[in-house]
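Thread: sanity check for a docking pose with zinc ion

Original post by kr_44:
Hi all, I'm comparing my docking run against an independent structure prediction. Below are the sequence and the ligand SMILES. Could someone generate the full complex and paste the structure tokens? I mainly care about where the ligand ends up relative to the chain.
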Amino acid sequence: MSLSLTFHGAAGTVTGSCFRLSTPNGDVLIDCGMFQGTKTIRELNYRPFPFDPSSIAAVLLTHAHIDHSGLLPKLTRLGFRGRIFATGGTVDLLEYMLPDSGYIQEGEVERLNRRNRQRGRPPVQAIYTQDDAIRSLRRLRRVEYDRWTDILPGLRARFWQAGHILGSASIEIEALDGFGGGAAEPTRILFSGDLGPGGKSFHADAEGPERPDWMVLETTYGDRDRTDLDEAGRQAVLRAEVSTALAAGGVLLIPVFAVERTQELLYDLDCLFDGGQLPAVDVFLDSPLADAVTGVFRRHLDDLETDGDPFTRANFHHVRSVPESQRLNTLSGGAIIMAASGMCDAGRIRHHLKNRLWRPQDTVLLVGYQAPGTLGRLLQEGTPRVRIHGEEIAVKAKVRSIDVYSGHADRSTLLDWVEARHGVGHGLFLVHGEEAARASIRQALLDKGWPAERIAQPALDDRVDLAAPRPLVPADRHPRLGPADLAAGLDWHNHYAEALLALRRTLDAAPDDAARERILAGVMGALDTNEKAGKGTQP
Ligand SMILES: [Zn+2]
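Reply from moderator J.T.:
Ran it for you. Here is the predicted complex with zinc ion included:
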């Protein structure tokens, strides 16, 4: 087979973006992302790659988000020796994001192995370390937007503005099929990467070439239309929330994502302070990663669609050391603290929440998507008590959510982007979306007159022959996980945690110890019956 494409991630799931383009002169990867979500899905990160990393000639990277770049250190650790091509913005972001990810992997495995030792289980190895991440950075090569870059003999690539985050790109690839020279037309493949919503403060709207032979389209919000506000509308929503929080006399705590969201908030606050729409209260950015990433944005001011430097003000304070962070505990009101992580599942935000959730005068403002099972989601759903670092905390602070910041194109913006490409020569692959999102985009395209046989929804590890375009069915299928494993929003680990919490709640609510003993006897009886039933079915 002279030209084929294999979907090693973001197929049947949103995360783990990784596509392998096989050509006669070598294989290249488009993205090499980490799987995120349930433990079942994350377990894929620990397994071997379904290809030999040393056989990969090059990687083309759409953007720096970890679900697109997060397994590059693992790829390098396992023998990849080629170049990683990315825009300057992406390269500069990765310099901080990959080592940070390595640090997180090391920490997670350390905690896991402590538990494994206690349970008499063998230790596991980190997916990669901070050192692996630093080594992988040496393989990065900068490319310019809108210009062809030679990748391999007979294969070149062009990066287009995707308007998603700093440095984000859609990647157009031109591959000569036989490489025998002569008049053969090259095959053109366009990978959308993640597409922005348009109308962002920092980036131009997404662009792209016309009528590629093949298109690989993200569909994250393929089943949702949002009412996107313009800059002034968005800032008005933020202003109202900040004013109310300050009027309550407490501190406003904003859990933030380090890349893009932090900088958008700083930008909006800067505008509101400048315009006198908010009093210039102190804003503490308490996240070393968000701080470093803001530094990258500052270095790329020329690439951003802003005037001046919106990230530097007398009342913006960058909190670096742990003692500095701890000193924020004594603030009683009239200030904003921004800390990572955005879903409250790690990082310094957990210390601040532990310190403030019980104070009725304080406010927590959620500004991004909160995944099921995260502390951020529990707060959003109005849970009255939470557990942080093993301590139970009553939630008395006000918890607010706003949905005016988005990094992703919604359904109609995705469809507009496809429309602007004027169709495809051979076929379109829908990826990077839950099944409902992919189905919704597919239906919309059918309604617009696209032939059904031009649209495919590849499954994990499907390989498609691009040299023999029709029919558009996988030439090869070796899935590492089945569709049910990928689609499940929650796996048994989540349900186990829920069951333990429910048991604890029931025991706490019981009137006396005798009642608690009866409840436990009932649970043990059910387990016993289950065990006997299990034995009964064995021959
Ligand atoms: Zn992204």
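Residues 63, 65, 164, 194 surround zinc ion (CB under 6 Å). Hope that helps with the comparison, let us know if your pose agrees.
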